[in-house]
Amino acid sequence: xxxxxxxxxxxxxxxxxxxxxxxxxxxxxxxxxxxxxxxxxxxxxxxxxxxxxxxxxxxxxxxxxxxxxxxxxxxxxxxxxxxxxxxxxxxxxxxxxxxxxxxxxxxxxxxxxxxxxxxxxxxxxxxxxxxxxxxxxxxxxxxxxxxxxxxxxxxxxxxxxxxxxxxxxxxxxxxxxxxxxxxxxxxxxxxxxxxxxxxxxxxxxxxxxxxxxxxxxxxxxxxxxxxxxxxxxxxxxxxxxxxxxxxxxxxxxxxxxxxxxxxxxxxxxxxxxxxxxxxxxxxxxxxxxxxxxxxxxxxxxxxxxxxxxxxxxxxxxxxxxxxxxxxxxxxxxxxxxxxxxxxxxxxxxxxxxxxxxxxxxxxxxxxxxxxxxxxxxxxxxxxxxxxxxxxxxxxxxxxxxxxxxxxxxxxxxxxxxxxxxxxxxxxxxxxxxxxxxxxxxxxxxxxxxxxxxxxxxxxxxxxxxxxxxxxxxxxxxxxxxxxxxxxxxxxxxxxxxxxxxxxxxxxxxxxxxxxxxxxxxxxxxxxxxxxxxxxxxxxxxxxxxxxxxxxxxxxxxxxxxxxxxxxxxxxxxxxxxxxxxxxxxxxxxxxxxxxxxxxxxxxxxxx
Length: 607
What we know:
The chain has 607 residues and is α/β, with parallel strands linked by helices. The protein is 45% helix and 9% strand. The longest helix is centred in the middle third of the chain and has 29 residues, at 268-296.
């Protein structure tokens, strides 16, 4: 397996925000992830990049056979060609101030052996040694990987012109086919949002995820997880099908961007501690099942377990936090997402939205019910899409035209699935709501739940459409964006070099005086989330509801106790300002206790 040049990766963000990130950063050895959900956006990106590299753009119409998979395959191959050409050009550049080849090595972390060789080359006054090191370094230039994300829940069934279900034609399956048919090597597919038996069954039929005799994978499987149990369950499911999970990508349940899959009060620190203590158990358990499955399939077993990487992402904001995660929990890498939204050299954000991100504060990013997927969704207020949504409501026509239908799952009003953000659904749902004759306050609450839903297929694509002046989706140009809460503490638009220097502690771009430690921020988010659960719970509850709410509380208390012990154990390793860390813990604990006492006093167990 190729050694990573950097200790971090750039996770998938929205649909547009990392859609061409590899073309921007992979040349510097940085791994990044693109979404392959929206093949119509991908087709627009094909039309943009082909002319830029002097090749003819041949459209793939959505009505053509297997168009979705073919568009994805071609776009990934296009990105791969672009990145390989960039790397080849870099290898023949002269070293010197401002050259991309020098930037490649200067941006590496200090402990990287290649960075040390580069510094040695620059320091030597011996021509022969310099020439030797010059040649060696050029051979070591390797681009970062082009990885893809498939959100497993986004898997609408598709039908042909005769109304027959297309075999292996659902959205997630077709996207997977597009990926595996690509020329990408040393690449990974990141599976997020849980298990999808149909997708896993399709993957089992492929040979693309098989290892070579020495345990090397041309294409790797990465699973995004929220805790150890989820990793074990999903890893075993794949292992039983003869597929190896090369990485578990742990993401904070709430201190993240996009959809937030909140755990039941389990906090990131204790979750990482469990991965650290049970890592060998995880590897052995999966390898035993994997080996058995390979033998049953008549495939050669491997002599030893392939590498499993453990990485973490969600709310990381300082070099101290990054280093602590890698050193204390022995994770193999970290993910930095939201801060890169303010790096135009790395992500694609239109100018209006970029300015809104730059100005945003803590109150501007909310955990909303705006996603048609029915999962809590982080949302930046004040976007052009929000303005457009309210304009439609005021005009008496709430909802959006549903053009893409990737999130059309609702069948309340018929067998044909529709999207809850669509005008069609919201009109029917509001009529149904009116017929219930609810009291005023309750009616308004229920109405707001309907009106909150917002088109994401187009809204999360339009940043690239607007920035590159591409053909819009039927003249719809409004943009929504889903940064994590961490965006409140980053307010400067910076270069790629400066952001990487921040990650590695060579500079500091955070000027916010009150930014809490990432563990504290997540804890506060969970306390707020639990408070919201209590507010939404009726006064009379059953045994199951009470047990869930109490267990959620107990998990938070256990997390606070863990962090208090951690602070005492490692001292300044948790935070430079240890006293502030412990004070923030005490404040969160007090708030939690008050909420719990109120819960016990106001909620009655049903008999």
